[in-house]
């Protein structure tokens, strides 16, 4: 008896869910989405052993979520083909319903969704040159790739480095994606210090996936 094609499709979806069904694999994908990294560096970032990291990466590679290449003695990993950033964003969006910290920030009238800006709106502002683009991710992620012309001030350093921002110019902050807490925290801090600030809805991985220009 032939197997129902719909059952086969659901079986493939279940295989995908099993591949992603581990916190360490999702964490690895989150780091790889910021830029190509070696197994050793990924092990440091995730605080896993190199052997454990390699094992998880092999699962992700078999599922098509990552690709690898050799650079001398190092093996470097990057995201595979397909809408992987969209899958990760959807998972974060679902999880965000239960995160009280994010709900509190969104509910703050000084940090409301009216301050969000789309990619198209940002592109228009960048053409006019009337905006400071602020990347609040860690410096390592910024070095792997960032939006053109962006200034890097990690959120944890922002309070001490406000003087580096051009006075009187609107600031657009961004980080890893729509549910990344870094840009929301930066937006609130800047607003409290008198800056006119908006937050890019899409983070760097989404920008890159859209085929827009990046700097390294």
TrEMBL record:
Q: Which residues form the Rhodanese domain?
A: 127-216
Quote the Pfam families the UniProt record gives: HTH_5, Rhodanese
**What superkingdom heads the lineage?**
Bacteria
Molecular functions (GO terms): DNA-binding transcription factor activity; thiosulfate-cyanide sulfurtransferase activity
- Stored PROSITE patterns: HTH_ARSR_2 (PS50987), RHODANESE_1 (PS00380), RHODANESE_3 (PS50206)
Occurrences of domain HTH arsR-type (ranges): 5-99
Q: Which residues form the signal peptide?
A: none
**PANTHER family the UniProt entry points to:** FAD-DEPENDENT OXIDOREDUCTASE, PYRIDINE NUCLEOTIDE-DISULPHIDE OXIDOREDUCTASE
Q: Which NCBIfam families match?
A: HTH_metalloreg
Name it: Metalloregulator ArsR/SmtB family transcription factor
Q: Species name for this entry? A: Paradevosia shaoguanensis
């Amino acid at each position: 008896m032939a197997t129902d094609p719909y059952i086969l499709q659901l079986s493939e979806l279940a295989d995908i869910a099993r591949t992603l069904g581990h916190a360490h694999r999702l964490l690895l994908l989150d780091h790889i989405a910021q830029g190509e990294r070696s197994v050793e560096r990924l092990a440091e970032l995730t605080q896993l052993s190199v052997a454990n990291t390699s094992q998880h990466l092999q699962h992700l590679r078999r599922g098509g979520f990552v690709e690898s290449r050799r650079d001398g003695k190092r093996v470097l990993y990057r995201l595979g083909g397909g809408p992987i950033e969209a899958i990760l964003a959807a998972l974060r969006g679902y999880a965000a319903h239960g995160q009280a910290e994010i709900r509190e920030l969104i509910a703050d009238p000084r940090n409301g969704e009216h301050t969000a800006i789309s990619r198209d709106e940002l592109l228009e502002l960048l053409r006019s040159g009337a905006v400071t683009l602020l990347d609040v991710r860690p410096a390592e992620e910024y070095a792997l790739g960032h939006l053109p012309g962006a200034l890097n001030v990690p959120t944890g350093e922002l309070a001490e480095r406000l003087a580096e921002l051009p006075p009187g110019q609107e600031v657009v902050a961004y980080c890893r994606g729509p549910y990344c807490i870094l840009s929301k925290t930066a937006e609130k801090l800047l607003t409290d210090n008198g800056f006119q600030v908006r937050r890019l809805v899409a983070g760097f991985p989404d920008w890159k996936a859209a085929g827009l220009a990046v700097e390294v």
